[in-house]
Amino acid sequence: MNDLVSIEAAARESREVSDFPGASAPRVPGILTFILADVLVFGLLFVGFMVERLGQLELFDRSAAALDVHRGLLNTLILVTSGLFVVLAVHAAREGRAKATRSWLMTSFVVGAGFGVNKLIEYSDKLAHGISMLTNDFFMFYYVLTGVHFLHFIGGMVVLAVLWFRASREPVDGPLFGWIESGALYWHMVDLLWIVIFPMLYLLGAQ
After folding, report:
1. Is residue 15 part of a domain?
2. Tens digits of per-residue pLDDT, 122-146?
3. What residues make up the domain containing 50?
4. In whole angstroms, how large is the CA radius of gyration of the chain?
5. CB 145 within 8 A of CB 194
6. Mean pLDDT of 70-93
7. Which CATH number covers residue 195?
């Protein structure tokens, strides 16, 4: 009898959970493992940068002074703002509001595009002045760190575009919700990496 009661209670609990919007759509399998592995790789690059900087402090500080702090700060604000809009998209999707979800995803994409434009202008300016990754060790790290991050940024933009497209054809609080939540986690990783890259490259030499 007790076993029967337990089974009924479990079934009732299962129905209650499945009735919650987005509850039947877990995150994409392995997304947290991927993000952790990616962060660890960047962590090794960060450590390598700091070790080299300690050995060439004057060179690194002098080279960092050639970077535009205001441009770096603008890129930080752009990504953080875009990340906020992604959070709003997740909340809208959880509530099943497809139109609002698509609006926030598109807004996040448009704002995020500003980062790409700003970064390409910065790269063009550096190359026009003859500054490449062969200039010295600082700029080697600069191009590697920001370049790999830029590739992650492009990947995130593609994800936002695909989610926006799918949100017009699928219920946002069904299986698609797991993809939206996973895409948001990835986009936040892109934000977090830049929040570390910005002060490390642009601010350490400005002391």
Report:
1. no
2. 999 999 999 999 999 999 999 999 9
3. 31-206
4. 22
5. no
6. 97
7. 1.20.120.80
